[in-house]
Amino acid sequence: MLAAYRAKFTWSGILLTGITVFVIYLTLVPIGMAVYGSLQDGPPGTGSSFTLHNYVRAFNHPILYKSIVNSLIFALGAGTLAFTIGCLLAWVTERTNAPLKGVIYTAVFIQVMTPGILESISWVLLLSPQIGLINVYAKSLFNLSEAPFNVYSMTGMIWAFGVSSYTVPFLLMAAAFRSMDPSLEEAAFVAGSGNLQTVRRITLRLMLPSMLAAWLMLFIRGIETFEVPAILGLPAGVILLATEVYLMTREVPTDFNLAATFSMVYLVVALAGLYIYFRATRYAERFAVITGKAFRPRLMNLGPWRFPVGGACLALLTLVAFLPLMVIVYTSFLPFYAPPSTKMFNLMSLDNYRQLTQHGGVYKAFQNNLLVGTASASLAVFFTAVIAWIVHRTPVRGRKLLDVLTFSPIAFPGVVFGLALMWLYLTIPVPVYGTLWILLIAYVSKYMPVSMRACSAAVMQVNKELEEASNASGASWWATFRRILVPLILPGMFVGWAYILSLTFKVLSLPVLLAHAGTEVVPVLIFDLYEGGQYTVLNALGVGVIIVVTAISLTARAISRRYGLEQFE
């Protein structure tokens, strides 16, 4: 028995070492190469020498400070707007007797399914000073000479990202409101407090850690995002750190060294936000709102305000969720973009969809996306399942470090990580740059935290006795893992797999720097169509993407409900 334990421990140690090295290679080595690039005086793959001149150039560059300030303003403003909308909708849904709660969940589902770049383009079609539907109707209705709204501005960027990101605080706060023990609120009501006074003095104070966590998560997403700054910021000349790094790798002559230096500043800003997030949530247990007592959450009776509150939520969701989706679908049937009218409805057809079926680039993009997305999701889920087993099932030292390393890519903005991979594979003699392999590596590295969350939760739901019985029967660790653990955690693995696959269809920030001719994926193709002014065709493509992502998500949702894994929804 002792010999068997030692053999298991030895194999666990060897496995831990091997996977730790692999995770370090996927996560820290690329970032290390970006640091290396910022300290070189030549482009990647060429003979160059050590220098600090890039940092001198960066900190003497006026755009650096302007882009930092713009990034902070954008992240703070958009995060606050998204948090306000999401928190309000979560409170109405979970803690009041307002009607239309199903409509709120439908709107949240729509937002989750829609790619970020498509949401940004939809706000161009709604709020552009020249062609935006809202501006066109506002000018006609109020007899205005100029458009009242301009989406190509900092305010427009904050609006577009804020109203498309309320799903994050909604899901986080809805779970917190749903799990909150209402006894303290009931005590306040017994003491004579009204609804508003109870919400202000009791509910909000108890929810403070969850609210702060949700807001900080939005701030980090605002710092990281690329779609809104690229679609709305570049035409307005509003430069953020993300777009500045992108431009330095695309403009002629390219300046990879300065881009790497800017990316280090970008990374520091993102890490600072993540550090504040962890510090703020470190002592969340002091504000615990879930107790060991059984309870049924009490709904606040809004009285005569019940239907007005429901109507206000419906009006808000119509503006921020349903209207963008409607303009995407409407535009996809038009020969050219124009406000709705009898003439335009008569011109509607399926020509854009037929054009997509004849567009070789569309088939290639979907083929690349499915190939790379499926492979990267499978590899990420497999490796994180093994990592979750090591972290939660083995006694070997260093497993917590492996857990931290696997989670670390969440701190790396997509543009920074893409640039880091460019430096790595243009420097070392591994021929993956310009191929689908680099996208595969990028997706596996970046989305490991997603699958790690799903696999860890699934592993912790499995009782150790089943594995111990297998080991007592003489089975090896690999046989136990493969025959006992994997079948039991397979539903959780699939949910993580489906979520990663859907992200490859939605996120632009990572592939925008790594995809080349012949290796484009769907988000890059949408971005290219937008730059070419093909609004009607790209919206038809967007509808197709929403259908694909919805099918993937509904399948994952059905499996999560079937096996009691609602926490992954």
Number of distinct beta strands: 0
Going by CATH, what is the homologous superfamily of the largest domain? MetI-like
Q: What sequence of helices (H) and strands (E) makes up the elements?
A: HHHHHHHHHHHHHHHHHHHHHHHHHH
CATH hierarchy, class of the largest domain: Mainly Alpha
Radius of gyration: 25 Å
If classified by CATH, what would the architecture of the largest domain be?
A: Orthogonal Bundle
Strand content: under 5%
Ends distance: 42 Å
Structural class per helix/strand content?
Answer: mainly alpha
Q: What is the molecular shape?
A: globular
The total number of structural domains is 2
Instruction: Bin the helical content.
Output: over 70%
- Helical region count? 26
The averaged pLDDT comes out at: 83
Largest sheet: none
Which oligomeric state applies?
single chain
Residue stretches low in confidence (pLDDT < 50, at least 5 long) are 1-9, 284-294
By CATH, the topology of the largest domain is MetI-like fold
